[in-house]
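Hey,
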Amino acid sequence: MTHWAKSTYCLAISLTLLLFIPNFGFSLNFTDITETSGVGDRGHGKGVAFADFDGDGDLDLYVSNKGGENNLYRNDGGGTFVNVSDLVGKGVADPGMSMGSVFGDIDNDGDRDLYIVKGGRNEIEANRLLLNEGGKFVDVTKRAGVGSKDFTYAAAFADVDNDGYLDLYLANYGIGAGNTLYRNNGDGTFTDITDSAGVGDRSWSWGAMFGDVDGDGFQDLYVVNGRYPAGEPNHLYLNNGDGTFQDFSKESGTNDGNWGLGAALADVDNDGDLDLFVSNYIGPNKLFLNNGKGVFDDVSEESGLADDGWGKGPSFGDVDHDGDLDLYEGDGKLANKLYLNDGKGSFYDVADKLPQLKNETVRTKGTAFADIDDDGDLDLYVVNWGTSNRLYRNEQNDSKFLKVRLTGTVSNADAIGAKVTILKGKRLIGYQEVKTQTGFCSQQPTELHFGLPSTGDYRIEVLFPSGLTFTGSFSSGQTLSIVEGG
């Protein structure tokens, strides 16, 4: 086939594909409110973490910078934030080399504590744990025993033994580095149980996230690995429920050997289990569908998500309120992408229709969805390297949503690991688990957001890590606050 013939053939295919791209409306719109919101951090950004640190009911924002000060922005409502880093305790505005910092209530007192993840090019600095005491932070790293001096890229909290306290996992990077699992002793101290648990991955790790992929009630662990140029296999560790984990990477089909940077666990096909998206810096991105038992099928090509860019920063959320999870991904090579889920197994990039979201020629790092103005739709925060971060307000503005805030009493106070199912009659509308670290160096809120296909009445089922349950009915367009056992 001649070069001209090949070009004509490819053009014909492209035009044909365009005919089959669904028309999503296009009522979806995002407004860039970076300047008016006050969160256009211009540092060498790596990570973003959302949490209500001061207990006033709205979502605050922490930005980790690799060089320069970190910044904690207090949400004052209506889409405006105030930088309070220097007002809430020494160490919050840490001037070191920070990566994927994470919030979690380690002492079950109702306040979100902060673990700052650090590492440097020439000097490795210790990670730090800041205890939240009524909105003020106190450094308790030494007493807690979690001041690791490894080059940590990301951290995740989860209750791996279901004892009601959040444990801590570190994804470490570099030659000879091994990852670390700390068990929370319940008295403000932690014990390194990496070796006995069997999760001391010695690859170059960039991220780690927890979720119950096999449905047995215990938090499993997925670790994202990679190094130039060939990459390294990622690892899936199944939690045996007895303090140990089983390396199930090969058997699960998720041991992707590309250079991974980010990943996210989410139920993209609404079948009640956690699927997996892997964002690769070198090699095509991957989407794996879970069969419910921790075995996955690679559907990257047919789903439309096998992009071969410089993948980084994936975040799932139902931005258009049609009842399925969409995907935003940072791509440092060309432009970021917003993939809408058609609910039939395919994703379509609509960023060309929303060019403000593309951040072209910018090296995006972490990204996260969160309802920052409490109007019921998911807004988007994008961390950029060496240029201003961006905050985009979602203009969906309808009542086809449900937000769920859980509080554990027997389980950990953040209800990390709790499972929430939304039903319409017998039809499953959405399934999510409460988690901490996701994507690349990022944390979305523990407040779960469900888009709904229509307004009306639905049913909710909640399973807490302790095994306690809650069921009830609700009308769309509201926020439910549910206390375990209440």
